Amino acid sequence: MAEMFYEDAADLSIIQSKKVAVIGYGSQGHAHALNLRDSGVDVRVGLREGSPSGVKAQDAGLRVLTVADAVKEADVVVILAPDQNQRDLYRDQIAPNLNEGAALVFGHGFNIRFGYIKPEAGHDILMVAPKGPGHLVRREYVDGRGVPVIVAVEQDASGAAWDLALSYAAGIGGLRAGGIKTTFTEETETDLFGEQAVLCGGASQLVQYGFEVLTEAGYQPEVAYFEVLHELKLIVDLMVEGGIAKQRWSVSDTAEYGDYVSGPRVISPEVKENMKAVLADIQSGAFAERFIADQDAGAPEFKELRAKGETHPIETTGRELRKMFAWIKPADSDYTEGSAA
Ligand code: NDP
Ligand code: MG
Ligand code: MG
Predict the structure, then answer these.
(1) Is 108 a catalytic residue?
(2) What is the pLDDT of residues 42-64, one digit of tens each?
(3) What number does the ligand 1 atom closest to the CA of 67 have?
(4) What is the dihedral of CA 111, 117, 122, 124, to 10 degrees?
(5) Gap between the Cα atoms of 325 and 308, Å rounded
(6) Given the DSSP bridges, would you call strands 125-130 and 149-155 parallel, antiparallel or unpaired?
(7) In 10 A of CB 5, how many CB atoms?
(8) Where is the KARI C-terminal knotted domain (predicted)?
(9) CATH entry 3.40.50.1820 includes domain 4-182
(10) What ipTM does this complex have?
């Protein structure tokens, strides 16, 4: 059984006694910075000069500094820039300005696990990774709840790294929901696998194929959209509430029987073998290497795949249909339809 932590395991005064620099003010950065500030922590935000997100941080009442200046002031440096930018950012602006004994906090283990960042021995290296998008991490905190976190210590230089990690996790509201003890290796490999095989890669491809099969067979795209995309949320909500069993209990007997007989025909044992191959590429570092090499080259493959994804007919159908859905209100005001770039 995994080791779990709740608020009673944490001493919030530890993080309240530190000067914290949050580097990056995007999805996770804004949530960590604002939640910590509202938990009574001394927070500054570090961003590059002229950063568009700096304006948002300032409007929220936070102090915004250059990365170098924020790091120079800090006992705790939280690295929440995109994974692909962290290596250069750490080498050029964080490491040269890092105080002796300052702790490093990550929201995902990618750069430590794959060796793109190698901090010196004197620093605590922690991870507090919320298991949800940053905008939810902020919204739940404001509503008095939290998004669960997983917590890890890679390097315990001070001997008190776990106390700091739990205090930090409480500060962002994560321990209201609960924390699970993990390692950088486990978090990184399972996070990449989950998003690639099931949550993002698997679900997106499943929905697209379902839409293609129905529309190619002559059914109306609007009806196909409802059946394979819109209703997915209702099914997933039931799974989250009560597992696959609750989903099967709630749907009709027809749907449940179809689940048993057709699910394994669509997602055949061969798919499981493909998943294992995806996991092997994550574990070997081959996926990380491909991602970072493409990013270093200006992300040509990434941009091409993103542009191609946006042209799928399901996106056009969905854009038109969602205009008619008064009950769908996007929670994330930063997102504009059709402008994922
Ligand atoms: P974002 O893409 O939202 O981060 C964007 C922010 O980083 C902006 O403030 C941007 O500033 C800043 N930034 C980008 N490049 C640099 C740079 N070179 N120097 C300084 N600042 C920079 O990141 P996420 O929040 O998605 O991810 C952050 C970390 O959290 C990652 O490790 C990720 O894996 C992890 N994570 C993310 C989750 C999520 O919900 N998205 C969930 C769990 C973990 P500017 O305005 O100048 O562009
Ligand atoms: Mg991830
Ligand atoms: Mg139906």
Answers:
(1) yes
(2) 999 999 999 999 999 999 999 99
(3) 20
(4) -20
(5) 26
(6) antiparallel
(7) 20
(8) 183-328
(9) no
(10) 0.98
Beta strands in 69-143 (DSSP E): 76-79, 103-106, 125-130
Ligand 1 site, residue 79, Cβ cutoff 6 A: no
State the catalytic residue, choosing from 32, 108, 123, 135: 108
> Is residue 191 part of an annotated ligand binding site?
yes
The tokens describing 337, both together, are 């339809």
Residue type, 147: V
What pLDDT digit, counting tens, does each position of 288-340 carry?
999 999 999 999 999 999 999 999 999 999 999 998 876 666 655 576 665 54
The alpha carbon torsion through 18, 21, 26, 27 (nearest 10 deg) reads -20
* Ligand 1 near 81 CB (within 6 A): yes
Residue nearest to atom 29 of ligand 1 (CA): 80
Whole-angstrom distance, CA of residue 143 vs CA of residue 173: 10
Computed over its alpha carbons, how large is the radius of gyration of the chain? 22
Strand, coil or helix: what is 5? strand
134 CB within 6 A, ligand 1: yes
**Across the strands, what pairs with 158?**
none
Q: Hey, what are 112's tokens?
A: 């430590």
pLDDT in tens, 261-285: 999 999 999 999 999 999 999 999 9
Q: Give the tokens for residue 178.
A: 């609960």
Could you tell me which residues are beta bridge partners of residue 130?
A: 149
Ligand lying closest to the C-alpha of residue 223 = 3
Give me the residue spans of the domains in the chain: 4-182, 192-323
> Could you tell me which residues are beta bridge partners of residue 209?
none
**Helix or strand (DSSP H, E) at 42:** strand 42-47
Q: Among the atoms of ligand 1, which is closest to the Cα of residue 133?
A: 40
Closest CA to 195 of 279, 259, 272: 279
Give the angle 132-133-138 at the CA atoms, nearest 5°: 95
**239 Cβ partners below 8 Å, 6+ apart?**
246, 247
CA of 224 to the centre of ligand 3 (A): 10
